[in-house]
Structures are given as structure tokens and as C-alpha cells.
Amino acid sequence: MTTDSSLRSGPGTTGRRSSSRDGGDGGGGRAHGHLPGREHLPARQPAAAASAVPVLDVVVPVYNEEKDLHPCVVRLHGHLARTFPYPFRITVADNASTDSTPAVAAALAAELPGVRYVRLEEKGRGRALRTVWSASDAPVLAYMDVDLSTDLNALLPLVAPLISGHSDLAIGSRLARSSRVVRGTKREFISRAYNLILRSSLAAGFSDAQCGFKAIRREVAERLLPMVEDSGWFFDTELLVLAERAGLRIHEVPVDWIDDPDSTVHIVRTATEDLKGVWRVGRALAVGALPLDRLARPFGDDPRDRALTGVERGLARQLIGFCAVGVLSTLFYLALYSLFRLGVGPQVANGSALLVSAVANTAANRRLTFGVRGRSGAVRHQAQGLVVFAIGLALTSGSLAALGAASGSPSHGTELAVLITANLAATVLRFLLLRAWVFPARACSEPDSEPDSEPDSEDVR
Fold first, then answer.
1. Closest-CA residue to 220 (of 194, 201, 239)
2. What confidence tier does 46 reach under pLDDT thresholds 50, 70, 90?
3. Taking a C-beta distance cutoff of 8 angstroms, is the pair 147, 259 a contact?
4. How far apart (Å, rounded) are the C-alpha atoms in residues 255 and 212?
């Protein structure tokens, strides 16, 4: 294929096919529409269609790789031609190289069928992937590093779950137990430390964020890419974190990997930018600034969306979340009561502890139990939560008053026992009020008649 310069000014629209199942109008709003159900891609295509629409588009981002680019692409092309049973394309994405990389890439595009060359005038691996993926017409998109550190035998297992419709994204993992990796101690330590940071700070469940060997279904990329801010090395980590938080399925493939001693990656600068990205994404997730709710139930074939006779949707999950929040809130309340009791009487200590714990309880239930994200409606929810708090206060204060009238000067342990009993009764009532009044289920819990409409930020999952 000839050199492709249509993407030099930014993402194009090639291959963006609209569908009533996709949601949106093909513009910015479409990025937040519901994803269509996963389907197994056709096993065979007519020869004419195969040359026009590849099933797989493998992007190779490069910057000043005049030495390694030609053997990399030739080897990758030969491997795909021998082993990949679907039409494919290889796209060389040049990140503003200043050496002879553009000439090498153009020669490869002219020499090998199915090879394309794209020139970008700005650096950034994430920028290159976003630009090519946004314009690609292939249903499965992948990328790999130019050094081919990852054994190419893992490529078909990487994309197979995406072709079959089983998964949404796939990543190669150098940290899986069955992976075979050859690299220096410093890089091994940095990689494991970085993934430990992701697990502890962002609760990431995937094992290897930095391996340059990943794939994604195009319809998933269309909706996730507008949410990813980074344009450098943190790009794919951010993509994975958002995908996982949105409930998408990530497939991991153990890989054989040999470190490239001539890698031009600046470790310290890259690590610094990655840590900044972790902080930015963590903060955005904490305040609910990302519209991930809109991807929480993306597929029409999700078994969790099937109606269950006699069981209201979401009740079991809400009960578990409410109980977990309730246990923590009760412990927090008792700790506050014991602290306040050191300086004030039982009624004042009880009221103060209930007030503080009620605000925290409403906020936790809003986010964790009923899945409400974003700041919209938060004040109203807290006001309604305070009404529920007043009911709990009446129950617990009334119990304390009755205890005082019955025994005069009860012990601290007796007070706590009565309060626990009263709180158990108040807890049941609190859940019913939160579910039915404060955070009611959506009126549109039936199948949506307008799939393109965007849910309100106060909608409950």
C-alpha cells in the first residue's frame, strides 16, 4: 500500500460506520453510547473485501528507528502472512522522527502489501495510537513495540478473544507465572514496583500495564479514547484503568519477552510522567469526574441484565454494599460516641456522633451501594440523608432516654448494648428509605426505548 498522510493533522473518520445499536450520532456524544453486543467476526471474507477491510490493524509506533524498523516490519509481516487466518494491516506510525525513519517506512509501505505509513508531526506514543486507532476501519486494533521484544507467537492468542467476541481488550503480561522473561534487575524492579503502585492506588486488577503488546476492539476504542487524556507512555495504562473501572473484560496473555538493551526509553522521565498520570486518574476517579457509568452495562448480552423472577434488579448487590458500609459506619459511630462521651453527656455525644457518621454514611452509600457518581444531586441526597438520620436519632435517643428512666445511671457498656440494638432496627429502616426515597431505582429500568439518549448523572446503576 502507498504512504498514508491523511492522518497528519489528527484523527480521521475512515471506517466509522454508524449503527443504531451503537448509540450517539457519530460525533462526540457517540463516545458515551452503549456498546453493541460482542460478536464473533466472520471466519472468511471475499478476496476484494479482505484487501479493503482488514480484521486486524497492528500499529508500530516509532521515533528515530531507522535501524530496527525494516527488520521489525519484515519479520512481523512474514509472521502474519504465515500464521494469521484473517486479512491484516501493519501501520507504521512515525512520531516526528528526525532521522531516515520516514524514508524506511515509505519504502516498506511500497514494498509489502498490507503495510501503511502514517506521519505525525508531534511526539508521543499515546498520540500515535489514538490517531491511528481513531481512523482505522479494522474491527480489532493492536500495537507492539518496534524492537519486537515480545515473541510473536503470542500475537494470535492476544487477538483471538477479541475476534471471538469474548473480551474487549487484551494485554501481554510479562509478570504472569508462565511467562518467560529475560531482562535486567533494574527494569524488573521498576516494572514490578509500578504495577504494585497501580494495584495499591488505583485498585488495578491487571498484572502488567507497561508491556508494549496490547489489543482492543474498535467499538470499545471509539468510546474509551475520548476519555483518555495522556498522549505519552501512560496512555495505555490509563486506557486499561478506565476500561477495568467501566466493567469491560480484559484478557491477559503470558508472553515470552527479551529485554532490548538498546532501548531509547528514558526510564526516570517516563516513571515520573507515569506517577503524575496515576495521581491525575486517581483524583478523577475519586471525585467521579469520569462518565464510566455509561459503560457499566455496555452489552446487550450481559447475563447480569437478564430479568430474574421475583428478585428486583440490583437488590442483592445493594444489600451487600449497604451491609459493608453499615458495619464501617457503626464502628465509626461507636468510636465517635466513645470519644465525645469523654467530655459531654450521652445525648449530646450520641447526637454528635450520629450526625458526623450519617454524613459519611450517606456519601458512602451514594457511591458504593447505589452507584451514583458525580456531584449532581449530592446536596439533595445529603439533605434527605439527614432526614433518615433524624429518624435514627429518634430511635437511639429514645432508647437512651428509656434506659435512663429505667435504671438511673447505667454503665457505659449497657449504653453501648442498647445503642447497638437500636441501631440494628434503624439500619433496616435506613436501607428501605435510602432505596425507595433517597436513591430510587430508575424509572427506565425497563429496556430503553431510546438507546442513544445519555443517562442523567444521578442515575443509579
1. 239
2. very low
3. no
4. 11
The sign of the torsion formed by the CA atoms of 172, 178, 181, 184 equals positive
Residue 175: phi and psi, rounded to 5, are -105, 5
Q: The cell 482505522 sits on which residue?
A: 136
Distance CA 340, CA 66 (A): 70
Strand order in the sheet with 250-254: 115-120, 88-95, 56-62, 140-144, 213-217, 169-173, 250-254
Number of H helices, E strands in the chain: 13, 9
Quick one: angle between helices 185-202 and 267-286, nearest 10? Answer: 10
Q: Could you tell me which of 184, 440, 197, 189 has the C-alpha nearest to residue 314?
A: 440
Q: Which of 197, 205, 204, 175 is nearest to 276 (CA)?
A: 197
Q: pTM for this structure? A: 0.59
Biggest CA-to-CA distance, the chain: 96
Residue showing cell 519484515:
74
Q: How far apart are the first and last CA of the chain?
A: 47
Q: Which amino acid is at 153?
A: N
CB 294 within 8 A of CB 456: no
249, three cell numbers? 473484560
Cell of 285: 476517579
Which secondary structure element, helix H or strand E, spans residue 3, and what is its range? Answer: none
User: Residue 258 half-sphere exposure, CB side, CA atoms within 13 Å?
Assistant: 5
Fill in the amino acid letter for 310.
Answer: G
Look over the chain and give the mean of its residue pLDDT values, rounded to a whole number: 78
pLDDT tens across 200-219, in order? 888 888 888 888 899 999 99
Name the H helices within 300-411: 315-341, 346-364, 378-407
